[in-house]
Amino acid sequence: MNTVVEGFSKLTKEEKIDWLAKNYTRDPESSKNVLKQYWNTESKVQRLHDEFIENTITNYYLPFGIAPNFLINDRLYAIPMAIEESSVVAAASKAAKFWLERGGFKAQVLGMEKVGQVHFRYKGDHRNLEKFFEFVKPKLISAAKPITENMEKRGGGITHIELRDKTEVMEDYYQLHCTFETLDAMGANFINSCLEEFAKVFKAEAQTFPSFAENEREIDVVMSILSNYVPNCLVRAEVNCPVEALETGESIAPREFAEKMVQAVEIAKIEPHRAVTHNKGIMNGVDAVVLATGNDFRAIEAGVHAYSSRKGQYSSLTHAAIEESTFKFWIEIPLALGTVGGLTSLHPLVKLSLEILQNPTAKELMQIVAVAGLAQNFAALRSLVTTGIQQGHMKMHLMNILNQMGAGEEDKKVLVNYFKTRTVTHSSVKEALEQLRK
Ligand code: MEV
């Protein structure tokens, strides 16, 4: 019978594990061993991890891989990726190499605007509210000075505050829609602190604003929070080359390959079922780098998918065209990333990832991440329109299947070699392993 527990967070780690294993697992001793085998008691890292969140009982490891040979704006990068999916790093590396030989990737940040909103209700004449807004706006900015001062010294801060009337979509609903420049920080804490200050001052000043009628003074603030929808925090990455340079090594002529790639992207533009999978492949690359560099992948995911639907239908993040015998392939993607603050100086692997990336600014990291997404999409589409995805996928998955089947190191070596020229399926691997064991 599962039990309710009081004061769980106050138990020691051992006590938490004992309680959990006893109440929620079939074999408590072996469950405890599973949890403990991931402990890192020898280093300070465990202490750090324990304090990142509440109730840490172990670490959840993901493979950390490197995709080398990315030429981005004429600079070479080895890109760190944290991801569990077998084929992602291999695909990224393959795409990097392909484009390295064709001039590399070019990337450009189109905007860095971050957004936050104070959502409130107001039951009065909207013209009075507008007057109040004009009166109070400088006070909002000066009240936030202690928060914004340092950011301003470095060239950032609040860029715009606007009153938005949303009463057409919800009765009495208005917003302070605010934009920010947060430089190399992702800026969530900075933005939320500013917004909460705005809300406090906005509400307080309304109490004494002379033009308000008595019933107009009560501003009801519902919430103040940043928005992860950042369509103007945008980066573009692209590759291009003459069509005839698209020799893939598969039995497909360069022009046909280019045309198929364009068609594949066109399908993802007009067909949401395909677009979601197409973009999922892009996010394989994006999330892996976002995670390795300690950024918030949930924020990125939410923002990216909202952006993909901004025209009313979910659509492709990438674009492709053949223009005067040049093949062009590019992505535009909103990425609110940081290279200072958050986990960046706390998590040793995150710190090292940033060092491997040559300590990028937020703008440079946006470019690198966009390129990782574009490369991933190129690799996926290249397989899809030529050999099909399964060949490469199953090759990479072979090791997982062999591990699942408990193959020894020698058997693995033999079978990896054997499957170089054969189709990998669960049953073909099983059969080959059985043959070998005989
Ligand atoms: C698998 O993780 C991603 C792909 O499905 C992406 C795509 O279909 O474009 C291969």
List keywords for this structure.
3-hydroxy-3-methylglutaryl-coenzyme A Reductase, Chain A, domain 2, binds (R)-mevalonate, Alpha-Beta Plaits, alpha+beta, four-stranded antiparallel β-sheet, 438 residues
Helices, by number, come to 15
What's the story with the biggest beta sheet?
4 strands, antiparallel
**Shape by Cα distribution:** globular
Which ligands are bound?
(R)-mevalonate
CATH homologous superfamily annotation of the largest domain: 3-hydroxy-3-methylglutaryl-coenzyme A Reductase, Chain A, domain 2
Counting helices, strands and paired strands, the structural category is alpha+beta
CATH architecture of the largest domain: Alpha-Beta Complex
Q: Distance between termini?
A: 46 Å
The CATH class assignment of the largest domain is Alpha Beta
User: How many separate domains make up the residues?
Assistant: 4
SSE order, one letter for each helix or strand: HHHEEHEEHHEEHEEHHHEEHHHHH
The quaternary organization reads as single chain
Poorly predicted residue ranges: none
Instruction: Please state how the strands of the largest beta sheet are arranged side by side.
Output: 3-8-10-9
The name CATH uses for the topology of the largest domain is 3-hydroxy-3-methylglutaryl-coenzyme A Reductase, Chain A, domain 2
Total E-strand runs: 10
What is the residue-averaged pLDDT?
Answer: 96
Q: What is the alpha-carbon Rg in Å?
A: 27 Å
Approximately how much helix is present in the residues?
40-55%
Share of residues in strands = 15-25%
